[in-house]
Design brief:
Strand content: 15-25%
Distance between the termini: 61 Å
Shape: elongated
Number of domains: 2
Structural class: alpha+beta
Radius of gyration: 26 Å
Order of helices and strands: HHEEEHHHE
Oligomer: single chain
Mean pLDDT: 83
Number of strands: 4
Low-confidence stretches: none
Amino acid sequence: MKKLLPLILLLVGSGAGVGAGIFLRPGPVPEEQSEDAEKMSVEAEGTQEANDVDHEYVKMNNQFVVPVVEGDQVTALVVLSLSLEVPAGQKDVIYAKEPKLRDSFLQVLFDHANIGGFEGAFTNANNLAVLRGALREVAQKDMGDQISDVLIIEIARQDY
């Protein structure tokens, strides 16, 4: 009897799960609705392809290393990799001005570290949005409309 009870419970539970799945399954989609959904899907793919063609991504050649200083001591290092979203065909222009961009980005990253931006939960959405916005602002100041966004590709912190 002790060995039969788990088997009975297993069968009853499985049967209840199958029954609930059949009962809760969505009904058939009317034909006109499925045609509209298919058209919208094709249009969305075309728009996405057009957006991908209009922009390209330029990965900055080297990582950025930012010291986190408390008092007179370096307590951590933050390492970031950045990419820039630029209009198609602007990659060479960006690489030609990369030293200027790196200098501006480092200043923003050092300022962010000095106000405590890399302390605690530094990867939460709000902190990264503030950092990304500051990086985008300085990039657009240096390069104009050639840079539409700055992407943080990698970020890591090493405490000492």
